[in-house]
């Protein structure tokens, strides 16, 4: 839960920084951000990949333990939950 809070907080911080830079909530106004703030885009990408539980990121351990515990409890429900990840 701490990991989720940190990653979600970082993503909300990134969204707030995008809004401060563009002063718009329209997605089409966000074009060209990678040219103006390339370091920001790198951090935003890392936070996004961490939020989905990519292996190598901190959230992966929790996601893996939840899925392995679900397989021990009920294989059919766990299989459906794995399909829900895609």
Describe the protein.
The chain is mostly helical. It is 77% helix and 0% strand. It has two domains: 1-51, no CATH class; 58-86. It is built from five helices and no strands. α1 runs antiparallel to α3 and α4 packs antiparallel against α5. The longest helix has 21 residues, at 2-22. The chain is elongated and about 50 Å long. It starts with a helix and ends with a helix. 3% of the residues are buried.
Number of domains: 2
Which class do the helix and strand fractions yield? mainly alpha
What is the chain-wise order of helices and strands? Answer: HHHHH
Tell me roughly what share of residues is in helical segments.
Answer: over 70%
- Our Rg estimate from Cα atoms comes to 17 Å
Taken from the alpha-carbon principal axes, the silhouette is elongated
Write the layout of secondary structure elements.
Elements: H1 2-22, H2 33-36, H3 38-51, H4 58-73, H5 75-85
Helix pairs in contact: 1-3, 4-5
Short overview:
With 86 residues, the protein is an all-alpha fold. It contains five helices and no strands.
Q: Which short descriptors sum up this protein?
A:
86 residues, mainly alpha, 2 domains, 5 helices, 77% helix, elongated
């Amino acid at each position: 839960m701490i990991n989720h809070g940190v990653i979600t907080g970082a993503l909300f911080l990134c969204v707030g920084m995008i809004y401060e830079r563009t002063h718009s909530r329209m997605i089409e106004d966000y074009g060209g951000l990678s040219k103006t703030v390339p370091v920001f885009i790198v951090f935003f990408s890392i936070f996004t990949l961490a939020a989905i539980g990519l292996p190598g990121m901190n959230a992966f351990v929790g996601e893996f333990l939840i899925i392995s515990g679900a397989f021990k409890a009920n294989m059919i429900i766990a299989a459906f939950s794995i399909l829900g990840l895609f």
